[in-house]
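Morning. Coffee machine broken again, so started the prediction first thing and wrote up yesterday's gels while waiting. Chain of 321 residues, entered below exactly as on the submission form.
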Amino acid sequence: MLMLNQTDLTPASFILNGIPGLEDVHMWISFPFCSMYAVAVVGNCGLLYLIRYEDSLHRTMYYFLAMLSLTDLVMCTTTIPKALCIFWFHFKEINFNECLVQMFFIYTSTGMESGVLMLMALDRYVAICYPLRYSTILTNPVIAKVGLATLLRVVLLVIPLTFIIKRLPYCRGNILHHTYCDHMSVAKLSCGNIKVNVIYGLMVALLIGGFDILCITISYTMILRAVVSLSSADARQKAFSTCTAHICAIVFSYSPAFFCFFSHRFGGHTIPPSCHIIVANIYLLLPPTMNPIVYGVKTKQIRDCVIRIFSSSKDIKSHSI
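Came back before lunch.
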């Protein structure tokens, strides 16, 4: 029998079908997607602007927040514009290599999101448990090094993911029932053995998400012990209030992630595919949308900067009139 080359079994492109079963309401689904994406872009760009130009925000906590905002921008921009093109213009085709690039940026940004949340938990731990040594422990060089180490960890783990997808032979068509190139959705189109993909994907999730959740849990356990030991009720409330925005960010990031992870493995036959894909999109869109709002509302320094900017702009307008 004549053997086919690998290139003969690699599709030139995939067709992203959007949300299966809900094709008739794609236009209606696009409105909340577009609104949330607009809020995410404006909010995160606004945070980056404030942190860059406001001297009062040139502190460790806000440097980590800038990393989170930049990661959020990459995470939602990698997927949502393409989803909107599917919903609005039926531009469903994506080149095979573009699919791999999109996959790389999706998993790099989600891994970086988890890593930055872990770094922010460690930041809160040092700030509450070692307040007098905070500025000497978390110096600018240390922040740069841990940020770079977090990025390198994610990149080095995600790069093999794209290679083990590229090596697979594809003979089950090129139609993806999704709005973006999800690793396992692409792998299931292969007629080859995808056991390596399943095992490596699970390993990456544990090495990144599992490790980060463990570090966050330990950090907040130590924070809780330190806060409970404070004698003053005002001091306890102030310590807890510094963690509120970060806890909200953790909930917005990990809740849809846990749903996606466990539903794929334990609820695959009971949960409709459309539900899986909607939650998968929310997983990439909810944190970038909510993080700027939460930090803008819950963080006094950011709130004061925004009020000052709007007040000064009103004063300028009144003087010009």
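The radius of gyration is 22 Å. Going to sketch it on the whiteboard this afternoon.
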